[in-house]
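Hi team,

As requested, here is the filled-out complex form for the adenosine-5'-diphosphate run. I kept the field names the same as last time so the parser does not choke. Let me know if anything looks off before we queue the next batch.

— J.
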Amino acid sequence: MLDQAVVDPLIETQDLMVIYPNGTVGLTPISLEIYDHEITVLLGKSGAGKTTLLRALNLLVLPATGSVKVRNIGLLSASGNIRKHRRKTGMIFQQHQLIGRLTVLENVLMGRIGHYPVWRSVFPLGQKERRWALECLDRVGLQEKALSRCDALSGGQQQRVGIARAIAQKPSLVLADEPVASLDPAASIRVLSLLRSICKEDGIPAVISLHQLEFAREIADRIIGLGDGKILFDGTPEDLSGSAVDQIYGKIDQMKHTEALT
Ligand code: ADP
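And here is what came back:
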């Protein structure tokens, strides 16, 4: 008999739809499953619905209809369930969302705060937590920067701190929203490859939104192509044909994109 924990999806959305208060449909009803060990890239042009879908996976945007179910937690409807899921979800943001005046180590420790009751988190976290944060920094190659102020680091280094903070949470899922949007191509691929290899080593599924096709092809196990809040493609990078790319980007946009890279 198959082990259920291996075949059950970690996340299951059912007809998940988002309508913003101004009436804009951010997401048409979407049903999908996210499995362990899988690096999923949400690919699409600006406005395609990548951020909306990513944030709907932990209810940072509220769905108008539909549901999100998380293995071992259940439906994300009760506030307790949402809190449990968020505590086990490492978020990585486009602009890092680090606190520049704090040290690198203090920023990584922020990833641990959600694991303690509020009364505990106002006190400095202990030696065990600091050792764990240093281990996470070591994995992103920044242990020697632990006591530097975060705003003294380069953009690529700051995003590596963002990865360390996310893994310090010991997450079951990583959600990364355009994590390399502010980096040059060389730093982008370094950061994405690092994120991929850490998630693979730890068996953590990651959902990463990107608008660059070449990065998606390089790091994804699975690509979900989005446009106008709809899924236009769902498959492996090898399956992503030229016509699927045309659908995601539109022919003219894709030509501009290629020209911009050459
Ligand atoms: P992407 O991440 O692919 O750029 P988004 O998910 O941000 O796309 O946006 C999807 C759609 O929802 C777009 O039409 C966008 O303008 C709209 N949208 C996003 N956020 C908001 C918001 N806070 N209020 C109104 N409309 C929004």
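Two things worth flagging: The beta strands are 11-19, 25-34, 39-43, 65-70, 74-75, 89-92, 173-177, 206-210, 222-227, 230-235. The mean pLDDT is 89.

Thanks,
J.
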